[in-house]
């Protein structure tokens, strides 16, 4: 394969860019192309609108709608599957039609989905709204993520520094949105859940307007694939599918911020009020430490080792809660294991996500980066759909307090064995 977007520099060339890669965050942003700045700002806005609603969805489904615990878990998993699981469709559409039309369609659907969710009062209506919200992201997220990944490789080839720095900055923007979003949502919930949903829709109205104005009709270097195919080759690539499965266990672990963590916070504090602060803690960590962590990992770890370290840190986060649960601590002391879980999960995420996204272009065929980026999330979505329903069932079985958390700890730890043992290409380094 000779995908120009998947060429990577030699180790010697990468070392010559390391000093330049140590720019401050603001200097790095200024050196980015206008398109990269737009895409990174888009990620910030996406997450502000999204996280103004999602952290409070489980509580709304259980109390206002009256869903059983297993059904709440299934709906949350369905939301993730309709988003992550259908990324492969969005990625194919991006390769076929380009970035701009797919992003605009996704924004339009997200506006409709949030408005629908705000007025949904039955389980069927909620499920319909959640499916629309998820599929909207299945359209615009592969478009944005694949183009950021392609531009990051171009950035690396032009000698500006490792591609993971751009992808780390993309993660920082997303987490900044994840920090602002729950705070905005908590304020809006003082009115009601519907107000939070409509505010989220309003954010996407602004995103839609911004892309109508600023997104170019054709992006230089982006090749549209007119012929069919690509899926068969992707499905035959066992190393890439193994990467997808390993990444899926991370996403399942991250999904516990919305399923297992709220139960733990409710038990320890008697309410879910501290949940927003734990989300804020995660986001602040990423915003202020993602780039230094990525720089540290780039100097010491290849892509596989970075993902391995991240998955093991995530597993240790679940183990911390499992070790503390038998003590039955409540109040501030009871929240400390949950805080430890959030910290370890977040640091693991900072290692896993940029490395996984940086790895995908090394597998993608010519013009198929959208498809491959979509497949990374689609396989993850399938894992989350099954895993979230199983987790909801597990949490409701009345097992000893530590058992569900130990099971959750085992999943990312075992996933380390799935990671490919060397990178495809010509000596990629990060």
Automatic annotation (TrEMBL):
Keywords: Cell membrane, Membrane, Transmembrane, Transmembrane helix, Transport. PROSITE patterns: MFS. The keyword Cell division does not apply. The chain crosses the membrane at residues 35-54, 60-81, 102-119, 125-145, 166-187, 193-214, 240-257, 277-297, 309-329, 335-359, 371-395, 401-419. The keyword Transport applies. Residues 35-424 form the Major facilitator superfamily (MFS) profile domain. Its main location: membrane. It is a multi-pass membrane protein. CDD domains: MFS_MdtH_MDR_like. It is found in: Cell membrane. This is MDR family MFS transporter. The lineage of its organism: Bacteria, Bacillati, Actinomycetota, Actinomycetes, Kitasatosporales.
């Amino acid at each position: 394969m000779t995908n120009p977007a998947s060429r990577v520099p030699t180790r010697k060339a990468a070392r010559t860019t390391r000093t330049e890669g140590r720019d401050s965050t603001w200097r790095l942003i200024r050196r980015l192309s206008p398109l990269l700045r737009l895409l990174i700002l888009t990620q910030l806005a996406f997450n502000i609108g999204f996280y103004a609603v999602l952290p409070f969805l489980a509580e709304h489904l259980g109390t206002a709608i009256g869903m059983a615990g297993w059904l709440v878990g299934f709906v949350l998993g369905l939301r993730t599957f309709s988003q992550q699981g259908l990324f492969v469709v969005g990625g194919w559409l991006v390769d076929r039609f380009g970035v701009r039309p797919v992003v605009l369609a996704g924004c339009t659907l997200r506006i409709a989905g949030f408005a629908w969710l705000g007025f949904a009062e039955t389980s069927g209506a909620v499920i319909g709204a959640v499916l629309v919200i998820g599929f909207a992201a299945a359209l615009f997220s592969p478009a944005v993520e694949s183009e950021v990944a392609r531009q990051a490789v171009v950035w690396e080839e032009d000698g500006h520094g490792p591609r993971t720095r751009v992808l780390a900055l993309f993660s920082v923007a997303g987490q900044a949105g994840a920090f602002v979003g729950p705070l905005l949502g908590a304020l809006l919930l003082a009115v009601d859940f519907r107000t939070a949903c409509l505010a989220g829709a309003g954010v996407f109205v602004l995103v839609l307007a911004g892309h109508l104005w600023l997104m170019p009709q054709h992006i230089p270097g982006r090749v549209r694939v007119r012929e069919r195919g690509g899926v068969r080759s992707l499905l035959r690539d066992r190393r890439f599918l193994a990467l997808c499965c390993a990444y899926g266990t991370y996403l399942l672990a991250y999904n516990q911020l919305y399923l297992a963590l709220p139960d733990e916070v409710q038990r320890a504090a008697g309410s879910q009020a501290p949940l927003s602060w734990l989300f804020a803690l995660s986001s602040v960590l990423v915003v202020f430490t993602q780039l230094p962590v990525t720089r540290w990992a780039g100097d010491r770890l290849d892509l596989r080792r970075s993902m391995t370290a991240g998955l093991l840190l995530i597993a240790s986060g679940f183990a911390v809660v499992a070790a503390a649960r038998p003590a039955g601590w409540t109040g501030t002391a009871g929240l400390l294991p949950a805080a430890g879980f959030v910290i370890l999960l977040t640091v693991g995420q900072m290692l896993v996500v940029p490395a996984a996204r940086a790895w995908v272009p090394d597998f993608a065929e010519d013009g198929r980066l959208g498809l491959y980026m979509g497949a990374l999330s689609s396989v993850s979505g399938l894992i989350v759909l099954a895993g979230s329903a199983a987790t909801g069932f597990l949490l409701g079985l009345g097992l000893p307090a530590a058992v569900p958390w130990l099971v959750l700890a085992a999943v990312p730890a075992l996933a380390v064995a799935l990671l490919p043992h060397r990178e495809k290409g010509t000596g990629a380094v990060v």
